[in-house]
Amino acid sequence: MDEHLGPLGAGARIKEVSTPAGTDTEETVSEEDLATTAGTVAGKDASRPPYLELRHLDKSFGDVQVLRDLSLELAEGEILALVGLSGSGKTTALRLLAGFERPDHGEILVDGDDVASLEPARRGFGMVFQHYALFPHMTVFDNVAFGLQAQGKTSGLAERVAAMLELVDLEDYGARKVSEISGGQQQRVALARALAPEPRVLLLDEPLSNLDPALRERTRRELKAAVRKVGITTVLVTHEQEEAFHVGDRVAVLNGGRLEQMGTATELYRAPVSRFVASFIGRSGALRGFIDEVSTERRRADAGHEAWVALGQVEDISVCWSGVSSQPLTEGERVELIVKPESLRLATSETGGALPGRVVELRFTGPLTYCVVRLMGGEELEVLVDDESAGKRPPKVHEEIYVAPREGGLKPRIFQLEDGVSPEDSISRGDGE
Questions:
Q1: What are the angstrom distances between the C-alpha of 204 and each of 41, 68, 117, 197, 218?
Q2: What domains lie within the chain, and their CATH numbers?
C-alpha cells in the first residue's frame, strides 16, 4: 500500500504515490501463502504501534446492547471496511468514532490520545455521509471551503480548496453549483470537503450507496485512489462486500455487535474462523455430516486441520467430502460443511463422492452462471457452471443431476456442531431421509 504522507499543508501540492509491487489488496493469495502474509497488513508491518484503536467498546440503547466488547486496531494510513448484517453494529461503531454517540464503556485512541469523551468538532475527524450533506445552492468551491471556514482556517483557503479539487479530479468544477453536477461528482465534492481541514481520521458512511451500479464501480476506484494519495487512516462502513474488498486494506466482520473476524479479503474468504463468516462472505451452501477420518497430513497452521466428512450414502456407498477446520477434529464428531459455488462441479453418477439432486434454478449473472441444485435431503447447493462442470451442454431446470467437489478447488470449511445429533442421523442421504 501507499506510504502515509501525513496531512497536507494549506496549498500543498498533491503528490502521486506509487504502489509497491506485490502489495495490492486485490492480488490473489493462495491458502498456503496466508501464513507468510500474517505479519503484514496491506504492505505495512503489523508490529508497528496502532494509530487508531477501539478498546472494549460497549454500547446499548435502552435494553438493547448494540456493541459488545468491540476492539480493533488500525495502522497509520490503513483503510478498514466494516461489514455485517443490518443491526450488526457497524453504523453504531462509526457514530461512536465520530462522536455522535458516547460508548457506555471503552476507549477510542488516536495516536495514543483517548478521544471518547470529546465532542465531534474537537476530534479532528473528517466524515463523508451517506447522503453527502452538501449545500445544493452553493458552488463546488464554496462547499469544499465551508469546513475550513467553520474551523477558522482561512489562511491560504483558495489554494487549499484548489488542491483538494485537483485531488478528486474536479479542478474545473469549482464555479458550478452542486445541483448541476452528477451524483458521482457530488460524492467527490463531499470527500474533498472532508479532507480539506486535514483530519486525523476519515470516516465514510456508505458513501456510494446512492449511486447506480455502473457509476458506483467507477466512483469506488476514484475514492480509493484519492484516499491513498493522501494516506489518511480511514474507516468505511458499507453493506456491499465487493466494495469492502476493493477499498479496504482489511475488512472487519461484525455480527450481533461483536467482532467475528478481521483480516484481508483473501483471509476472510479462504480461511474464515467462524461459521458466520464462512456463510456471510460470498455465496455458500451448507451440508451436515460427521467426521469419518482425520487426515494425518496437516496443512499450514493458519489454514487449519484437514478431515473427511461423511455426508450419507448413495446406492449403499458412503459419500465423504474433504474439508478444512480451524479447530482440531475427532472422528465421529458432528460437523457442518460450508461450501462455495466454485468448490463444486456438476457430475455423473459414476463420479466418486457425487451427491444426487435436481436442478431448481439457473441464475445468469453475465459472465457467470450459477446452478442451484436441491439434494435428496432437501439442502440446496449453488454450483458455478463452466465448460468443465457442464460438460457438452448446460443443465436444465428440473433435470436430475449430481454434485461433486471440484478437484483442486477451494476446500469446504468444517465447523463443529453442538446439537447432539448422532452420526447415524446424517441428513444428506440418497433415500430422502
A1: 20, 22, 21, 16, 17
A2: 31-270 (3.40.50.300), 283-425 (2.40.50.140)
Flag whether pLDDT at 327 surpasses 90.
no
3-class state of residue 90 by DSSP: helix
Q: Distance of CA 117 to CAs 61, 93, 315, Å? A: 18, 15, 66
14 by Cβ neighbours in 10 Å (0-12 / 13-18 / 19+) ranks as middle
Q: What is the b/e burial string over 404-424, where b = at least 16 CB atoms within 10 angstroms of the residue's CB? A: bbbeeebbbbbbeeeeeeeee
pTM of the entire structure? 0.81
Beta bridge mates, 414: 337
Could you tell me which residues come within 8 angstroms of residue 124 by beta carbon, excluding any fewer than 6 positions away? Answer: 110, 197, 199, 200, 201
* Residue 348, helix vs strand vs coil: coil
Q: Which three three-digit cell numbers place residue 369? A: 452462471
pLDDT tens readout for residues 263-295: 999 999 999 999 999 999 999 999 999 999 987
What gap in Å lies between CA 200 and CA 77, rounded to an integer?
10
